[in-house]
Design brief:
This protein is an all-alpha fold. The chain contains 17 helices and no strands. Helix 4 packs antiparallel against helix 5 and helix 8 packs across helix 9.
Length: 460
Amino acid sequence: MTNDPQNLTQETTDVLPPESPAPAGATTNRQVLLKWQIRIFALSWLAYAAYYFPRNAISAAKVGILDDGVISRAGLGYLDSAYLAAYAVGQFIWGAMAERYGQRVVVTGGMFFAAVAALVMGIIPALWLFMPLMIVQGLAQSTGWSSLCKNIASFFTVGKRGRAMGFFSTSYAFGGLIAVPFMGWVAYTVFESWRWAFFSGAAVMFVALILFLIFQRNRPEEVGLPGIDEDQCRFDEKYRHRPSGTRAPVPVVKVPAEKFRFRDLLAAARHDSMVLRLGIVYFMIKPARYAILLWGPVMVVDAMPGVDKITAIMVPVTFGLAGVVAPIAIGWLSDTIFKARRVPPSVISLLSLVVALALWQPATSLGSITVIAILLGVVGLTAYAADAMMSGIAAVAFGTSKYAAGATGFINGCGSIGAILGGLLPGLIPGAAVFYIFAGTALIAAIILIPSWNKRPATT
């Protein structure tokens, strides 16, 4: 096989002749694609769930850090803000880098540095070094979402992306659901030290990194299949991939890299103005989810002073548990009930979120852990539904497979700028006031989206 791009393109075409339907009993491209869809989906889902272990290690460690008095509450808020600022910058950068260098390179590097940063945070005795390490963690964490959304868009057709992205979006809900309880249990029950939250988070990430490095492939063309947006009749032809002669556990077909210039970072927003609107909306709604994600256990302590560390960590599990269900439900609703319209279910979710956030003060005044847990579950259901739609389903739909990484990177970058407030404000404003602030921003987001109620994504 030659390295000349023209010849590479020709060879890829030769592997899949358009004029020959598959004979009876032959393995078709569609059958092979289905196997790769399952593999890529599972790998992407596992990888992004794993991102939440080093990401949420600081959340699990907070109650121990505050109890020891080594860092003030405001100081932890500043750490979160530094992390989220780096995360926002990275979202704009890594979406472009995934387009240029491929998801495998970007995600592998991000997972490695996220694990190393968490590991070092558990080791170092000088807590002032937490600030640069949180910045490294933010940049590393931002490699995941846009790149892995590109994975899904590269292997699923536009008609199935809503459901695929809905199920994929459960990865971050599941990661947020189990990461903090697991790391909290290791830290406070097994080893009785908040530092083990960082060690256990890094260990999980390293395992996922090895699996991703081995089995990831970026595009159907790399395994001898047609591009996902090509004529669908080609998937009914016989699969004729020629083995590459390598010892890789999965086959690889070299395809010419797409040229991507850094100034094309905003190409997705230029491609469809809806991408820009989604970015603004996501800026308004992401603070609420990140406030509970990063400060949930502390918020429980604020509402119920005197609860033990494990209880404070376990109560917000309802927030994450509801978040596992929400992306699946909203993805299915947008594909079926609303016929690929992504805005109506988003508006409904946002208005419901406004009500749930506004009820925090009345609910906590009852002094019941059960009521607090239930309300956090409702907030999780509505917040994750809107979040999954903005950051994934709608982003990929309006970006199309061509601009999927750029669109998700742009939208998530905007959201991550807003998320800085989610990390900062709970450290400066304890109590219900912060919930009213986030309810107001969610209401503004819904109002912005309503004029686009019937907007549909392009099919190419």
